[in-house]
Write a structure and sequence with these properties.
4-stranded antiparallel β-sheet; alpha+beta; disordered C terminus; single chain; 3 domains; disordered N terminus; 10 helices
């Protein structure tokens, strides 16, 4: 039985179904539902609409109030050379007749090009761009053909946009002319090393030809025809001596066959003549061997000198024949890059995409405003602390007695 003055006993919290007694109650899920997102979006809808309308109005006003722009265009074409040089062992090169887009762009936008454009405009009495940035901001470059490289001709369109149509045309013309001249100079500079290499090779071939000529003249001074005539005369004498020796042998054989009837003094004389002929014959044979060796050496030396001279003369002629080809390439190279279409003074301003600009501005403003609404809701502080304690009892049945029961 409870004391009337004491507070009523508090019944313990009922544990959730399946949870152990004394465990803390489960907390609600913190995920944001689609309904909450819709409510946030609904509360921020006026701000989104205002931002969208203001951005669209500003874009429309800019499109209508911005000054008109005129665009002048010039077309440049750079074709590869049809001449290809090669076939020489020492000189194998391929003359480049066209440039790629990256090289052309770097030339067209360089500081040297700006200086030349400014000087050309001032010489014509036209107001030039104040700074390189002004020229860069007013110009654009687009490759129509040949952007992938190879043997295809490179065609590029240079565009200049300006509020004054006359200035747009003048700037485009000066820019195109200067770009073409600088491209031609670049291509001609590529031929410089080829000229130097050709001249050096021509000097080397000339020196080799002079050396071969000297060796040939030295070989020719050995008088090969004279040595051949001497050898022929020695062979003739050898034949005569051989015939005389055979005649003496036959005579001596006949005298010895006669026996005692032969004159001993005659036999002795003939034997002496025979011995002299044999000695002379041996000497002639030695001379013929020497002459044959000299003739062979002289013939070999002259043939080798002749081959070296012919090879040196052929090499010199081949290198020398490159000079007309290089002159032809030098004449063709400047013509390969040319102004295909000169700029004209524009009569109509550049069409403005008013609808597109307005729509894009409205879409971007709506997206930014929506993002701002959600960020504002995320960082907003709660209205106040919760009136229920963290461990408030659930709405389920409880064993605690109500005040009426007490």
């Amino acid at each position: 039985m409870n004391d009337p003055g004491s507070p009523p006993p508090t019944a313990p919290h009922a544990a959730p179904h399946g949870a152990p007694h004394g465990a803390p109650p489960a907390r609600p899920d913190d995920e944001v539902s689609l309904r909450e997102l819709a409510l946030i979006l609904r509360r921020g809808l006026p701000l989104i609409l205002v931002a969208t309308v203001l951005a669209a109005a500003a874009a429309l006003a800019w499109a209508w109030l911005a000054p008109e722009t005129y665009e002048a265009r010039a077309t440049i074409v750079s074709s590869p050379n049809q001449v290809r040089l090669g076939e020489d062992v020492a000189l194998n090169f391929d003359v480049r007749g066209a440039i790629d887009v990256a090289t052309l762009r770097s030339i067209a936008t360089s500081r040297g090009t700006y200086d030349d454009v400014r000087a050309a405009l001032e010489a014509d009495g036209v107001t030039p761009p104040a700074t390189p940035q002004d020229l860069d901001a007013a110009t654009s470059l687009e490759a129509l053909t040949g952007a992938g490289g190879g043997d295809e001709a490179l065609t590029v369109v240079l565009r200049v946009a300006h509020g004054d149509p006359d200035l747009a045309a003048a700037w485009a013309g000066a820019w195109a002319d200067v770009t073409v001249e600088r491209i031609r100079a670049t291509l001609l500079d590529d031929l410089g090393p080829i000229y130097e290499r050709t001249r050096a090779a021509l000097q080397d071939r000339r020196a080799a030809l002079d050396t071969a000529e000297t060796a040939y003249r030295e070989a020719a001074t050995r008088d090969l025809p004279g040595l051949e005539r001497q050898l022929e005369a020695a062979n003739a004498r050898l034949g005569w001596l051989t015939t005389d020796l055979a005649q003496l042998e036959r005579t001596l054989a006949g005298l010895r066959a006669d026996g005692a009837q032969g004159d001993p003094r005659e036999i002795a004389r003939l034997e002496g003549e025979r011995d002299a002929v044999e000695a002379t014959l041996a000497t002639e044979r030695d001379a013929i061997r020497t002459l044959r060796r000299d003739v062979a050496d002289a013939r070999l030396a002259l043939d080798a000198a002749q081959r070296e001279r012919d090879a040196a003369a052929d090499a010199y002629a081949r290198v020398r024949s490159l000079e007309p080809a290089l002159a032809l390439v030098s004449d063709l190279t400047p013509r390969n890059t040319r102004l295909l279409e000169a700029p004209r003074t524009p009569t109509e301003p550049v069409a403005r995409s008013t609808v597109l600009v307005t729509v894009l501005a409205a879409v971007v403003a709506a997206l930014l405003a929506t993002l701002f609404v959600f960020l504002r809701e995320a960082v907003r502080a709660p209205d106040g602390p919760s009136t229920s304690p963290p461990d408030a009892p659930s709405d389920g049945p409880s064993d605690a007695p109500s005040p009426a029961d007490a």
